[in-house]
């Protein structure tokens, strides 16, 4: 941001120039000199601002999908949102997370390399408490997971990776697959300590419990597809998506949907005592005559009027009339 001088500072500057305390030529030389910017090789900048913006957009969708998924699984209020996306050395990430936490190590083919979804113990144990019938409170003391608790955790987070695959569809199709679950960061070494990673931090709220979910993606994993993370490439690929092809695909899937078709001869109302007194040979009067067409329903909606008959020794119905949209069935 450009600094704006106050009137007193402007007056003092003009006074110094006029008195000779400051030389205008020296000031010009300072402006023309090359400015040196310090560079920390331990914090190498591998992701441009464009890449960071793209990762932010992708994982904002990921946060929305996770919110829907966990809300359905836990049957309680869940809110997840992206707090920040930054790049830092892997060693710094390991030192920033708790000594006891939930680390979901996974791969996402065709990307090469391993990534980590780190879940703060408050969030993980609140999920576990909710899944086991509790109200979703975080424990006051964090203990080692039992075998049953580990299995439950692996199951819920393995399915959560489907949301990650859905969020990445705008860039490429990936197939995330859980490899292992760890609780001690010191036992997890997926890349060298100085390797740059993209850290996506998600603020998570489950009921009254809050915590963080961190997604760690090493630069070496994303390096082959860095060009796809540029905003220009992203928007071009979105424009290239064929709308007619999508429409045909949707039409095909709808045409393959199965619906029940029901031909009703009619209906009748009888008392419970009459129902209990029914025996073989009794006749129940329906609300329709023989001359009245059958009501043919698709799903639960009346769509056709037809006539009963047979076809090749099988019971069949012939469609005589198509019912207009919006017409409801009524008793005659």
TrEMBL record:
GO molecular function terms listed in the Swiss-Prot or TrEMBL record: cytoskeletal motor activity
Alphabetical UniProt keywords: Bacterial flagellum, Cell membrane, Cell projection, Chemotaxis, Cilium, Flagellar rotation, Flagellum, Membrane
Residue ranges of domain Flagellar motor switch protein FliN-like C-terminal in the record: 253-323
One of the GO BP terms on file: positive chemotaxis
Topology relative to the membrane: Peripheral membrane protein
Any one GO CC term of the record: bacterial-type flagellum basal body
CDD domains: FliM
Entry keyword annotation includes Cell membrane: yes
Record bears the keyword Membrane: yes
Location in the cell: Bacterial flagellum basal body; Cell membrane
UniProt similarity note: Belongs to the FliM family.
Entry protein name: Flagellar motor switch protein FliM
Biological source species: Paenibacillus dendrobii
